Amino acid sequence: MYPMIKIEGVRHAYKTPAGPLPVLDGLELSVDEGGFVAVVGPSGCGKSTLTRLVAGLMKPDEGKVMLHGELVSGPRSTVGMAFQNPVMLEWRTILENIMLPLEIVATKMSKAEQRERANYLLELVGLEGFGDKRPSELSGGMRQRASLCRSIVHKPEVLILDEPFGALDAFTREDLWQTMHKVKEEEPFTGVLITHDLRESIFLADQVVVLSQRPARTQYVLDVPNTGPRDLDHLYTAEAADMLNILRHQIEVAQGRAAA
């Protein structure tokens, strides 16, 4: 059986006036169906490039990116994405913003069913009653919750999260971590999370992949035990402390500040 996401020997470089800038170098990554992988690494190592490759927004110079055993050759309707900046259209209500992907992706849902699903997702993330508001009327955390709804409204198989909580304050960020577990339980998907927050990675993911310095390769893989929904107390256990120490050391290795 094929994993949901399979990246094999991917190499990629950006064209610059000074010549090619290698970003990924033989990257390997595998995510089983229903799995949730967090990707961490030094700033600028190519994490966001990885998300664009999985989403089919760009093609690698070498290697393969596979979804469900099929080569990714372009954007796919089975992939949802949420970013650090939850861009919303101010002239549309929150409910209309959430329904936007359903205007782009082919769906068999009627207009009434689309509204019903969008309202259900708002309730799921704690925004019941805010569907008729405009984006400027919501806080940053609330807009990010709405952005999460928008990313899964079309029921994607794969959800890519590119630092969606990075700009939020600590309390809002931790609250959204718990919301993510709730969403994952009610709306199953295979997830890839890009983050700089090591606590976030072990709280949300089943597995943490550490990338090396650019051009990135897979440097280290940490399996997170006791996966599934958990509370914040999990982050203050001896087990969590050990995982964080391992990841911090691996980041220092990637940055060239420590020996492997």
UniProtKB/TrEMBL annotation:
Q: Which GO terms describe its molecular function?
A: ATP binding; ATP hydrolysis activity
Q: Domain of life, per the record?
A: Bacteria
> What CDD domains does this protein's entry cite?
ABC_NrtD_SsuB_transporters
Query: Which segments constitute the ABC transporter domain?
Result: 5-238
Any one Pfam family match given in the protein's UniProt record, by short name: ABC_tran
**UniProt-listed Gene3D superfamilies:** P-loop containing nucleotide triphosphate hydrolases (3.40.50.300)
Task: State the UniProt keywords alphabetically.
Answer: ATP-binding, Nucleotide-binding, Transport
Q: Which family does it belong to?
A: Belongs to the ABC transporter superfamily.
Q: What is this protein called?
A: ATP-binding cassette domain-containing protein
